[in-house]
Write a structure and sequence with these properties.
311 residues, alpha/beta, Rossmann fold, Alpha-Beta Plaits, 6-stranded mixed beta sheet, 14 strands
């Protein structure tokens, strides 16, 4: 387990030694993690890593094979009213109107009367659907349905919000709409969001948990990543066979990390600005022709891909 928490954090969710088996298949493997109040956590992993299973265990939709899921030190199944949940595939009755759908779902959550009516109007305004209140869901785009799903998740004023792949099935316009909405609610909520689209999550998450095959392989806050993982990279496009050039560079500069893909060579430095010239000078002296040199910084997505491939 990798854990980096800010001093004074108040723990909201605790997952302790949790396992999940389906027959002989071990889906979640002895998982331990904590989520603090105010966090917006991106749960990142390839398809089949166990992201949706973790979320469903937190919501109580499926049970743990062993271990505990706690909400403020209490079994989470006793505090479901404090959780808002948007499943990966939110299903609504296509023939129902938008407003009526929220009223029905609010009643199922225990809301009623003027408080329910007021809350429905508030949520429709928040998600930008107030002008669509009387329209049938069958007329909604994917992004609009997803915004309605977020509205139902927030309807009962939950303290903790779970979003399971909220943008993965949307077109670019729908993704932009939902991302903007998450950015708005993130300021006042604790969120756990599962996705495999890391570039979107980077816009609002302050912490990332990487999982693979039901195990946590990294857990960090963005500020810590910027301080500890944000190394400098130089990419060189070469005309000679890249594998041969990369091997020469490894022999000449064993202190640098050299990788290659197709005709592209990436070199990671501890101090790019003082070290990159040595590599360029070596390529020129060896008459190794290159067509392009790019300076880039490692992103969280780069780090995720390296983590998943290397473990």
């Amino acid at each position: 387990m990798f854990t980096l928490y800010l001093e004074g954090d108040v723990k909201l969710i605790e997952i302790k030694n949790v396992n999940k088996w389906y027959g002989k298949k071990h889906i979640i493997n002895d998982m331990n993690l904590e989520i603090s109040k105010g966090d917006c956590v991106g749960l990142i992993g390839p398809n089949g890593a166990g992201k949706s299973t973790i979320i469903k265990m937190i919501t109580g939709n499926i049970s743990c094979s062993s271990g505990d899921v706690l909400y403020e030190k209490q079994p989470i199944d006793k505090l479901k009213s404090k959780i808002g949940y948007l499943p990966q595939h939110a299903h609504f009755k296509e023939w129902m109107h938008c407003e009526d759908t929220l009223i029905l779902l609010g009643e199922l959550s225990g809301l009623k009367g003027n408080a329910l009516q007021s809350r429905v109007k508030e949520m429709l305004k928040l998600v930008g659907l107030e002008q669509k209140a009387k329209e049938k869901i069958a007329t909604f785009s994917g992004g609009m349905k997803q915004r309605l799903g977020i509205a139902q998740a927030l309807l009962h004023r939950p303290e903790f919000i779970l979003l399971d792949e909220p943008v993965s099935a949307l077109d670019p316009i729908g993704r932009k709409e939902v991302i903007h909405l998450i950015e708005k609610i993130r300021a006042h909520s604790t969120i756990l969001l599962s996705t495999h689209i890391l570039a979107d999550a980077e816009q609002f998450c302050n912490r990332f948990i990487f999982i693979k095959e039901g195990k946590i392989i990294d857990d960090f806050h963005v500020t810590d990543f910027n301080n500890n993982y944000f190394h400098n990279l130089m990419e060189v496009e070469v005309m000679s066979p890249a594998l041969e050039v990369a091997e020469k560079l490894r022999q000449q500069f064993p202190q640098y990390e050299v990788k290659t893909t197709s005709n592209l060579i990436s070199i990671e430095f501890e101090d790019l600005w003082n070290q990159k010239d040595d590599v360029i000078r070596y390529l020129l002296n060896q008459n190794i022709k290159f067509t392009n040199v790019r300076i880039k910084r490692k992103t969280i997505e780069d780090h995720f891909i390296e983590s998943v491939v290397s473990i």
